[in-house]
Specification:
The structure holds two protein chains of two kinds. Chain A contains 34 helices and 38 strands. In chain A, helix 8 runs parallel beside helix 13 (about 450-460) and helix 9 packs across helix 11 (about 375-390). By secondary structure, chain B is of the alpha/beta class. Chain B has helices at about 10-20, 35-45, 60-70, 85-95, 105-120, and strands at about 1-5, 25-30, 45-50, 75-80, 100. A five-stranded parallel beta sheet of chain B has the order 2-1-3-4-5, sandwiched between helices. In chain B, helix 3 links the parallel strand 3 (about 45-50) and strand 4 (about 75-80). Chain B is globular. Classes of the chains: A alpha+beta, B alpha/beta. The interface of A and B includes residues 947, 950, 961, 1179 and 1189 of A.
């Protein structure tokens, strides 16, 4: 009988992190299950317990000690036993305290150990058993001891670090800064100070991962008080930090939730637009009918039309919001004559205001300078503030003033209206908040106009404030800064504008006109529209504005010609600190500028519209005034032959995109230098050789003149130093080939021959100095006419060894990057991929050679493309993006969720020259997290949807009533009735969508008995117009007898979603097959029911989408889908005890999708009172007017 | 049938009144809850059709007040907002039960409902 019992005591287990000791112990226990046949249960129980303990021992009955696996030592407080050549010995009272230690690192306590040995060994065991990193340094910081936990964490041995300065050890190589932090700490500790700080070190996964430690250095002093040792300790606080991050992440999650809502609204806005537009068409047609339309009915229809405009405006505003929030609104800030623009915009409201018996005052004196605004956004700001003022003002005046105020400009819209109650003032900018208790012209405001104003002003880096006194009036103040420094540079000037939402201004004024109901007349509307026309003309005038010019003047001018505005901007930024930069968008413009401004150098793209780079080069060369200007081609065409082609055409140099900023600057500088030297040389050669020499001598780069046969005719001081000579005498007359490294000699000879035959060029080669030192050189050379008429080589040569060497280091680093587990890629500032490691290949499926040189947008989903310029802009500013979670697309089209850490790559001067990104696939972890959060998200989206529903349903109700009335009174006017029928049907669709998307419809009424085929037919009526317009034919196969008991409204909604999906799947037409038949459940043949199959002949569903098809918010119809249809459908079907199945084919000949629903004849009774979101009765689950009529 | 229609949006109230009167009812429109209660006291209508979410007194409080005044008056609520359910649940807890129609209301359904309730005193 053996006994196993744990007398375990936790030893300094500050973390639950299992140490190697425990792991070994655990695996030992597992292995020894065989040895302890009777005690398996206790072993298991103990094993579980062991995992949470840092260091412990096991008491085992002596008889069982033999069963221990080899090399496992153990001891107890009172009794130390070990297994050594099967000899058991007792070492009583050896441990200093009852703590029990397990030795797992090979230190063996032996019977013969002296007390000193023992003490030393026990210290080591203690050290090794500690969960924290512990080390002992001498006073100079040299490593004496490091525990195994620390060594194991990075996978090294004590001998690797023993005797080395602590700061040179692997742990501390996370960054220069961290390393310096340690050195400073050691210096302080050596002076007797206790130092403690949080720092990041390598300490996990064999040194691949960093951890955060709470580090401390404690000086150990001798009797005289001198520091003799320093103990170093590090406690892993990564978890704690991770928790802090977790909190931050939760905060981010909230933001994500918000994003989701935004996305949701973007989707519904899109979904509403189409039927709204379709509805307005027939209304307009009806209004256009001259016969059979009474004056009263005309009024009604106009009213209906205006309500539709209001809906459209609301939907557009929602869309604007979602764009802003999704970061997809791209402001384009242009210098604008803001007073002119504002005055024009305000005057649009004049007739509406004056018709209401009030006055409009516009005070917009000319401003001292142009203001950078996005014109469309500014329009919205002014119009929304004005319409708000108009809404709440009944007498008196509305004043719009714009004036310079300090460093910016202030727009004030002041009214003499009802004012805002004090406690409401702070809430006016809240979305969907409508001031309670205020007396307005209309309750119809959507409650988001002012919120939008605030967002738009914020995008301009401005502020908006409100002051209000009840009964006196309200004033809104918008303040914008002059200049452009506060605006994101990439959005200044050109760029994309917010996609125009047609009829925006029109909608605004029309809405305002309508509030003023008594005077409503077509004429008033015409006036307003006429003034709108005037506005757009003046808008164009205001857009003509002078661009800002460079403030700093440099004597040398570089002309940049590129049709890509971003590229132009980038080059401009790069060069502007040293040169005056001129830019042109194409060759023709470039040529014009070159002829007028005589730049010192031209950098030009090759592929451009109007006139390409080659043509520009020829034109420059053919004109005497411009023929000597150095031209550098920039091209995306890689490959040597492209370079040769460029040089053949006479370009001085050639850079392939992507290029580094440093390379570009170096080349530009070299050519500038060469051109300058050549220019000056040629000019002065005629006058005096002395002058020439003086100039050349002062140049820091090697300038030499080489004859066609290689004889060195002259070399400046810098050159003499480069070859290691003391004076010109030592090199003059020598053959320059002698200095060229043997392997480069032939290419240098060929190069010289080419130059001396009248061409320009550049070359990289090694030289060997007189002292035998090898250095890498880069030379830019041009032919020069010598005094004797022969052509010689004039060359400017620079030492690029350092650059090459750093390239070497970069290659070594690259090797590490290459082997990283994370996908690591880099791109240049134009978003062109420049490197791509193996993990990236695995993750994205693109091979490095496939993707390098391609835009990174290849792996970005189309809808996220607008993110890219923002990322690049951030990088240009030198900012990092950390753990940015987003979606990327693999080569196979699969969407994966990733966490990105993106950092700018800087050169030695601190210039951002590229971007490095680390991509981690988080698809799986996201999936789990998402599943958990879905419910919460839906609830949140649902709450918001409810608010919007109100805003949308009110005008819908109005239009429904109006169309009903118009139809009732249309009498015999058949055409009018026809139009109204059509409008009514589209109206039904809008209502249907509103319920489906905004109501998250749940039926609470009782199940009824109904005929499935009839229900389906009723439903099809809804889609009649779509069947016609899309040329979709119907094939029905009904068992007309089948009746089931279920919630009719919900079943109709489920079927309606499927039919609607099927129609969307066939944009090019096709056939919709419908089948209703008696059936049994797939899983239970005993359960009778009905099977409804809806088949389309569309292109089918791609395999990668199939799994997520029934997920909420999943949609393949990015523009129109809410991603809720199928999710709702499945919920409804499952709630009725049914099931839904999908078959889909994507073949070239056989393609299409079939959804099959099985519903039991008697559905499970629904649980009453389940979260009711809509109170619509079953009958209104589908658009009214159909099915009930 | 004498009906009071309550909606803060005059267009909705006006057009509904127009529709109801066209079918031979005697309807008036008011645009807030307080007016509705005052009018109900004067007119003593057979039915009140009211929006739920309105500034001031909401539709449910209005309905409750009118039910106290006129126990036989039928109340039909209509709403375009899902938040209504919370208000309804509250009213249910207090012992009130209301019929609810979702906005946009199909006028035919409203008329149908009114016809049905004529039979009920």
């Amino acid at each position: 009988m053996w006994l196993m019992r744990n007398a375990l005591k936790q030893q300094k287990s500050e973390s639950t992190h299992p140490t190697k000791g425990v792991r070994l112990l655990s695996s030992m226990l597992e292995q020894s299950a065989e040895c302890f046949p009777g005690g398996l249960r206790s072993v298991c129980a103990d094993y579980t317990d062991l995992r949470s303990t840092a260091a412990r021992a096991v008491l085992i009955d002596p008889e069982c000690a033999n069963c221990l696996p080899p090399h496992f030592e153990w001891f107890t407080p009172k009794l130390l036993r070990w297994k050594d050549r099967n000899v058991h010995k007792e070492l009583p009272q050896m441990t200093p305290n009852p703590a029990v230690l397990v030795n797992v690192h090979g230190t063996q306590l032996l019977a013969g150990d002296s007390r000193e040995d023992y003490r030393e060994k026990i210290a080591r065991i203690t050290l090794d058993s500690m969960v924290q990193f512990v080390g002992l340094l001498d006073a100079q910081g040299t490593v004496l001891e490091i525990n195994h936990v620390a060594l194991d964490a990075v996978g090294i041995k004590l001998s690797d670090v023993e005797g080395k300065p602590f700061w040179t050890t692997f742990w501390w190589q996370v960054s220069e800064e961290i390393n310096l932090g340690l050195r400073d700490a050691i210096r302080r500790a050596a002076q007797g100070e206790f130092v403690r700080w949080d720092t990041e070190i390598y300490g996990r996964s064999g040194g691949k991962e960093t951890i955060i430690i709470d580090a401390s250095l404690m000086p150990v002093k001798d009797e005289q008080g001198n520091v003799v040792f320093i103990t170093a300790e590090g406690r892993d606080i990564t978890e704690k930090k991770a928790q802090e991050r977790e909190i931050a992440r939760q905060r981010e999650e909230l933001a994500e939730l918000d994003k989701l809502k935004t996305q949701f609204f973007a989707n519904i806005s899109h979904e509403f637009r189409t039927p709204l537009t379709l509805m307005m068409g027939p209304l307009e047609d009806a209004l256009g009918e001259t016969e059979g339309l009474s004056a009263a009915n005309r009024d009604r229809l106009e009213l209906a039309q205006r309500n539709s405009v209001r809906l459209l405006k609301l939907v557009n505003t929602l869309l604007d919001f979602s764009r802003i929030e999704a970061g997809r609104i791209h402001a384009s800030f242009e210098p604008t004559d803001l007073s002119l623009l504002t005055a024009e915009l305000a005057s649009v409201f004049r007739s509406a205001i004056e018709r209401a018996g009030m006055q409009l005052k516009i005070e917009c004196p000319a401003l001292p300078e142009m203001v950078y605004v996005d014109r469309e956004m500014w329009e919205k700001v002014v119009l929304n503030l004005l319409s708000n003022a108009f809404k709440f003002t009944f007498q008196g005046e509305i004043t719009v003033s714009l004036r310079a105020a300090g460093s910016g400009v202030e727009l004030t819209v002041r009214d003499t209206g009802s004012g805002i109650p004090e406690d409401e003032v702070s809430r006016v900018f809240e979305r969907f908040h409508r001031v309670q208790g205020s007396h307005g012209r209309s309750y119809e405001g959507s409650g988001i106009g002012l919120a939008l104003v605030q967002e738009l002003v914020r995008l301009h880096g401005g502020t908006v404030q409100v002051e209000s006194t009840m009964g006196v009036g309200t004033a809104f103040h918008v303040f914008l800064l002059f200049g452009r420094a506060h605006l994101p540079s990439e959005q200044v000037g050109g760029g994309r504008a917010l996609a125009s939402t047609a009829g925006r201004t029109q909608a605004c004024v029309e809405e305002a006109m309508r509030w003023h109901a008594p005077d409503r007349s077509p004429r008033a509307m015409d006036d307003a529209m006429a003034s709108l026309g005037a506005d757009s003309a003046s808008a164009i005038a205001a857009r003509e504005s002078s661009p800002q010019t460079n403030s700093v003047k440099h004597s040398e001018k570089v002309l940049v010609v590129d049709d890509n505005a971003d590229m132009c901007d980038y080059l401009h930024r790069l060069l502007a600190s040293q040169y005056t930069v001129l830019t042109a968008a194409n060759g023709e413009e470039g040529l014009r500028i070159a002829r007028a401004a005589h730049p010192d150098l031209v950098l030009t793209d090759i592929m451009m519209p109007v006139m390409d780079g080659m043509a520009l080069l020829r034109a420059l060369r053919s004109n005497e005034g411009t023929q000597t200007i150095p031209v550098i081609f920039l091209s995306a065409r890689a490959g040597e032959e492209a370079g040769i082609e460029g040089r053949e055409a006479g370009a001085d140099d050639y850079l392939v995109k992507p290029f580094s900023a440093r390379e570009l600057l170096a080349r530009v500088a070299a050519h500038m230098n060469l051109a300058r030297v050549r220019r000056e040389a040629e000019a002065r050669l005629r006058e005096s050789e002395e002058g020439f020499r003086a100039i050349v001598e002062t140049t820091p780069e090697c300038v030499k003149v080489v004859a066609a046969d290689g004889t060195l005719l002259h070399m400046n001081a810098a050159g003499i130093a480069m070859v290691g000579a003391d004076s010109l005498d030592m090199v003059e007359g020598k053959n320059v080939y002698d200095f060229v490294a043997p392997e480069d000699r032939e290419s240098f000879r060929e190069f010289n021959r080419r130059i001396c035959s009248g061409r320009k060029g550049s070359l990289e080669f090694d030289i060997v100095s007189l002292q035998g030192v090898r250095r890498r050189m880069e030379t830019h050379a041009a032919p020069l006419k010598n005094r004797d008429g022969s052509i010689v080589q004039l060359a400017v040569t620079r030492d690029i060894s350092a650059r090459k060497a750093s390239g070497e280091a970069a290659r070594r680093l690259a090797a590490i990057v290459e082997s990283s587990d994370d996908a690591i890629a880099s791109k240049d500032l134009n978003g062109i991929v420049t490197s791509w490691n193996k993990s990236a290949e695995r993750l994205f499926g693109y091979k490095a050679e496939e993707i390098i040189g391609q835009p990174v947008t290849l792996i970005i989903p189309v809808e996220l493309h607008p993110d890219e310029p923002m990322i690049l802009a951030k990088m240009r500013r030198g900012e990092r993006i950390e753990h940015f979670e987003t979606v990327r697309v693999t080569k196979s089209g699969e969407r994966i969720e990733v966490s990105l850490t993106i950092s700018p790559v800087k050169d030695e001067q601190g210039n951002v020259i590229g971007v490095a990104k680390i991509v981690r696939n988080i698809t799986e972890s996201k999936k789990i997290a998402r599943a958990l959060r879905t419910t919460e998200k839906l609830a949140a989206a649902g709450r918001l949807a409810a608010t919007v529903a109100h805003e949308i349903n009110n005008p819908l109700t109005a239009v429904t009533n109006l169309v009903y009335l118009a139809k009732r009174d249309a009498g015999d006017a058949k055409r009018v009735t026809a139009h109204l029928d059509l409008a009514g049907r589209e109206l039904d669709r809008v209502a249907h969508i509103a319920r489906q998307t905004l109501g998250f419809y749940r039926d609470t009424s009782a199940p009824i008995h109904f005929n499935v085929a009839e229900t389906l037919d009723d439903l099809l009526l809804l889609y009649e117009t779509r069947f016609q317009t899309r040329k979709i034919s119907l094939a029905k196969q009904y068992d007309k007898e089948v009746e089931i008991t279920a919630l009719a409204g919900e079943i109709r909604q489920a079927l309606s979603n499927l039919v609607s999906n099927a129609l969307d799947a066939m944009p090019e037409g096709g056939t919709l097959h419908l089948r209703v038949s008696k059936s049994q459940a797939w899983t239970n043949p005993e359960l009778p029911g009905v099977r409804i199959t809806i088949v389309d002949t569309g292109s089918g569903i791609a395999p990668r989408h199939r799994a997520s098809l029934f997920q909420p918010f999943f949609t393949t119809k990015a523009d129109v889908g809410t991603g809720l249809g199928l999710w709702i459908t499945r919920n409804i079907v499952e709630k009725h005890g049914g099931s839904i199945r999908l078959r889909t084919r994507t073949g070239p000949r056989e393609h299409g999708t079939a959804f099959s629903i099985f519903l039991p004849l008697h559905g499970k009774p629904p649980v009453p009172g389940m979260d009711v979101v809509s109170n619509a009765p079953a009958e209104s689950a589908i658009p009214s007017g159909v099915g009930q009529a | 049938v004498k009906i009071i229609v309550v909606d803060d949006e005059p267009i909705i109230a006006d057009t509904l009144v127009n529709i109801l009167n066209g079918e031979g009812h005697e309807a008036v429109a008011v645009s807030d809850g307080l007016s509705a209660i005052q009018w109900a006291e004067m007119v003593r209508p057979d039915a009140v059709v009211t929006d739920v979410v309105m500034p001031g007194i909401d539709g449910i409080d209005t309905a409750k007040a009118i039910m106290k005044l006129l126990p036989n008056c039928r109340i039909i609520l209509f709403s375009g907002q899902a938040a209504t359910s919370d208000l309804l649940a509250k009213a249910r807890a207090e012992g009130y039960r209301f019929e609810v129609l979702a906005k946009p209301i199909n006028p035919e359904i409203l008329l149908e409902k009114l016809k049905l309730q004529q039979g009920i005193p």
